[in-house]
Write a structure and sequence with these properties.
Layout (H helix, E strand, L loop, with lengths): L12 H13 L2 H5 L1 H35 L9 H9 L1 H33 L7 H18 L1 H23 L19 H8 L7 H4 L8 H30 L2 H6 L3 H5 L3 H32 L21 H17 L6 H25 L12 H18 L1 H21 L9 H16 L11 E5 L7 H10 L4 E8 L5 H17 L5 E6 L6 H8 L9 E5 L9 H16 L3 E6 L2 H8 L9 E6 L5 H13 L8 E8 L5 H15 L4 E6 L5 H9 L4 E5 L7 H11 L6 E5 L6 H5 L3
Parallel strand pairs: 1-2, 1-4, 2-3, 4-5, 6-7, 6-9, 7-8, 9-10
Antiparallel strand pairs: 5-10
Length: 737
Amino acid sequence: MNTNQQKTSGLGTFGGVYTPSILTILGVIMYLRFGWVVGNVGLFGTFIIVTLSNLITFLTALSVCAIATDRVVRAGGAYYMISRSLGIETGGAVGIPLYFAQALSVALYTLGFAESVVQIFPSLEAYEVYIALAVTIGVGILALTSAQIAIKAQYFIMAAIALSLISFFLGHPVEQTHVELWRTTDVSFWQVFAVFFPAVTGIMAGVNMSGDLKDPTKALPIGTLAAVGTGYVIYMVIPLFLGLRADAQTLVDEPFIMARMSFWGGAIALGVWGATLSSAIGSILGAPRVLQALARDGILPNQLNFLGQGNGRNDEPRVGTAVTLGVAIAAVCLGDLNLIAPVLTMFFLTTYLVLNASAGIESFLQSPSFRPTFKVNWFLSFLGAVGCLAVMFLINAIATIVAGIIVSGIFIYLQRQELKVTWGDSRRGMWMAFLRTGIYQLDQLTDPKNWRPHIIVFSASPHKSWSLIELADSFNHKGLLTVASIVPERREYESKKNLESTIKDYLSKNNVQALVKIIRSNQNYAVIPQVVETYGIGALIPNTVLLGNSNASFNQDWESHKQYCQTIAQLHQLKRNIIILKENSDRQSRTFGEHKFGNYQRIDIWWSGIQANGSFMLLLAYLLKNDWQWRKANIFVKLVIKNPHASETTQSNLSNLIEKLNIDVIPQVIVSEETSFEKILHQYSDKADLIFLGLAEPQEDFDQYYYQWQQKTKNLPSVVFMMAANDFPFEEVLQKD
């Protein structure tokens, strides 16, 4: 990723921020639609619309000021601000559509220029597209030559707009009229609001020039707020003159009414042309700089890295400008962009929304790294974001949804690319704030109905003990999973850190979300209870421990076996649920090859009642069946009784109980008579893919007890031994009443 520092040119506050912003604000809507606004809602309604619209823009400007005075804003303007605050994925998701919106806006403005020319000179109607093409190429050449020259050209345009306003204010009435403070027509207030609002969305023109400013931290706040303030004053004064000089219906019917009122009508034509040209120049200057920043941050495919090139002392994006010019020319050749114009407006408003959200989040989190000299209360920024969203739906709900889908799609795509960045953003702070609140909230009495597994699985290494991790991940139903590995103390801390990174990468590649914990210890089993007891924070501690089976007893290493059993006893004393996976790998490999759990089709639970282990096994079987690999599995609940006369009654009771639990399992009552449980186990579970067995609470002879279970389960499919914590009512998690 290219992180080269970009040189700034000498553009100052007036030329680099105020001029492009105010010229975009004082645009075509002011000349051709402001009379229509006053005619439809009256003076008072117009003042409300102007004030509400400018309030949203003002709040956004405040957010821009906060971000701009916190960090150096380089090329890319709004994209740069968002990506450094909410992350590269969010920045790219907004930046890519923003680039195309600005590039296509060049065509919209030049087509608008050509249309106004044709209205004044009807004989040129056949050449409308050619006029638009000529103007597009002209502003493109101007931008390719130099940003400085383009800015200077905007001074002449500003002079033309100023002349048109002076001519208008010195003008005359076109008919006798009286001022209507409020007027109701067939057009609703919010429809009129939607038409006017784009008139005040010009502040991005200055923000987009951030990479060419001499001092962005100073220029952006002053220039942006000055442009918003100037625009608001002008937009509040013009309606007074319109309302005093023409009847409401005349204002609605005549788009060029300002020309009739003016001292010199030609000045209004110059103003319209200047407004369209200034907006086109602002877009042709801004779009390539967003494209340059996108390429330098590695968001675009590698084949497009050349778009990040800069030329000359001022690092001007001439390659990006040429590409943008090509996009604009192609759009002009299409002629009619009315179908996509609403979506383009949504992209600009989405940028406003996310900028407000960025500043609001940074301010709300009170991160030590966020120290703007221009401080804005987080509530104002969030209010601006809500206002932007509301306006988007008011203008065009369908276009809002389309824009949202496009932005979301780009975000998901970029997230899957796993882009690496060299800067930090506020997302970690957001999660830290949520986590802090959550931990304090969780540190209350345990609620059985909201129980979730928080599993810590101890494995030698993921690729060697993958079955353990796979099973833990299958049990993990929106809970937490930690993969812990014990390494010798001789291993250096740097080596430990590298191992942790390797395990994280391995888990990620296998689509397992888990935390990783590496423990340096020369003890094997003995250190496990210590880790379980100390691991976690507040109430967020592991409630379930998953272990691999000890094969020490089969290797005649009885001391190691006893230590393993002692570890289980200690974990039980810590009131943790214990799960032990006993893989009969030889049988599995002969029967199913690499599939450690057979065909994932059948789970057998050997049950002794709903209390303790029984409820725990049912609950874990239910969670297991929610995993995609086990979704087609049948769960058999097997209950052994001695009395054959009680078989029918027991079956009925078991079926009724299972039905109340609302878990899809198959109850099966087995009469043992004189047959040993070991034989029944082999007879009825030989074809299972996974067997659940409950363990009794550890007593003095637990090592002997567990060894006997090892012998009883020889040559069976994989077995999961379970021991529920004796202080947790798992039956309450299952029961519906």
